[in-house]
Specification:
- The chain is mostly beta strands.
- 13% of the residues lie in helices and 34% in strands.
- The strands form three sheets. A seven-stranded mixed barrel has the order 1-7-6-10-9-8-12. A two-stranded antiparallel ribbon has the order 3-11.
- Strand 6, helix 1 and strand 7 form a beta-alpha-beta unit.
Length: 191
Amino acid sequence: MPVFRDSGFKGEIAWLGMVPAGSGLRAVPSDQLDLGFGGVAGERHAGENRASCVRVRNLHPEGTEIRNTRQLSILSEEEMAQIAADMGLAQLQPEHLGATLVLRGIPDLSHLPPASRLQGPDGVTLTTDIENRPCVLPGREIEKDHAGFGPRFKRAAENRRGITAWVERPGRLVVGQVLSLFVPDQRAWAP
């Protein structure tokens, strides 16, 4: 019996990009990305392992080598539109958010169950981790191009910042490609 069920939802890739290693948070747009087990080669969050950061300091001392579940940053086109509206902007650019991919068509993307799978037609498979909580770094990028709007980001992005993910099966992502959503076939935790 499968442990993942096809949710029936599909997300079209509306945008792709990568944040070059050693740079700030701003992503560089691309029409396609080749993914290996370590994510996108040369990307800021690439690698099968990473040094732990403040997000997991209650589990590991900062700098401890851990598995990299933050290889990719996935955002929802619909949620980005809501963030922009709440900020008073006509549009929010994925580049400012350090996005790897922006999907359209999957509702409530920021709250997908961890361990869900997004699978492309060639078998490329992304495993979702958890919500990527808003921080001040995207606001700083927004502020560079839209003075006065950067500080509005963190509050507007609450519950809409997208998710982090890692590569389960390598392959190619292409703008316009459709990814199928598979979710864990289990009930919600209820202690």
